[in-house]
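Summary of Year 1 activities. Much of the first year was spent building the evaluation harness for sequence design. The harness presents a backbone, in tokenized form, and records the residue chosen at every position. We chose the following record to illustrate the format because it has been used consistently in internal testing since the harness was completed.
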């Protein structure tokens, strides 16, 4: 049972969210873990499933129609100069049983080891003794336990958000490459996948997007583009 790795795409915010949601549905059907790295057509701000759009508008300084609500949690994330990825773990895979914080820690530790091969030193943010309640506001200004950090100033460079359902775990994460003086995307992609094999205990297999991909995700694109989703999380 292999980790299926899909080709990178450069798309709009709504298309990127729709592709991740399609992967989650497909992972459940195939009962296989799936992974992809992707890029953005233009700089864009995403925000978490549970955040209030009026507050996000004010904080981000952008109208809601220029923002994209993720299906996962977390706070505001600014895209365009980051390395964004999606990982889906179906219920039938042993990794689905890993507690969320442990999974979060494993993913960021794996990213740290992959960056170390490029002589980039990182560390994991310690968990607070008293855990904060509520939804994070601005992700990279408010580090939480097990985020990936670097430098004496303890700057956050990587975070992620999850959605855990009865069928699968969807993880959407980002690495702020603008903060890295040296970074090779292709090398990191390979090294990160190699590190993930320690979690999945299996090989990875590169696959192509199937012919039905665009047709099947069309309804998801319409959902993530809609004002009803951006404002009130209403599904089509």
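For this record, the design step produced the sequence shown next.
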């Amino acid at each position: 049972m292999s980790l299926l790795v899909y080709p990178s795409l450069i798309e709009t915010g709504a298309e990127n969210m729709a592709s991740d949601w399609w992967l989650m549905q497909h992972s459940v059907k195939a009962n296989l873990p799936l992974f992809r790295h992707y890029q953005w057509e233009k700089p864009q701000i995403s925000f978490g499933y549970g955040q209030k759009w009026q507050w996000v508008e004010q904080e981000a300084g952008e109208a809601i129609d220029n923002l994209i609500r993720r299906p996962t949690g977390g706070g505001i994330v600014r895209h365009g100069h980051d390395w964004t990825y999606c990982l889906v773990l179906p219920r039938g895979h042993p990794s689905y049983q890993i507690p969320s914080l442990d999974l979060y820690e494993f993913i960021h530790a794996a990213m740290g080891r992959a960056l170390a091969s490029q002589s980039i030193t990182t560390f994991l943010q310690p968990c607070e003794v008293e855990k904060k309640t509520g939804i994070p506001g601005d992700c990279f200004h408010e580090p939480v336990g097990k985020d990936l950090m670097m430098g004496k100033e303890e700057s956050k460079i990587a975070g992620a958000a999850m959605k855990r359902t009865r069928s699968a775990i969807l993880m959407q994460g980002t690495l702020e490459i603008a903060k890295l003086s040296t970074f090779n995307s292709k090398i990191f992609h390979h090294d990160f996948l190699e590190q993930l094999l320690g979690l999945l205990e299996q090989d990875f297999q590169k696959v192509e997007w199937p012919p039905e991909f665009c047709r099947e995700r069309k309804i998801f694109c319409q959902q993530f583009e809609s004002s009803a989703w951006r404002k009130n999380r209403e599904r089509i």
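The helical segments are 13-30, 53-60, 100-116, 185-200, 213-225, 227-232. Quantitative recovery figures across the full test set are reported in Table 2.
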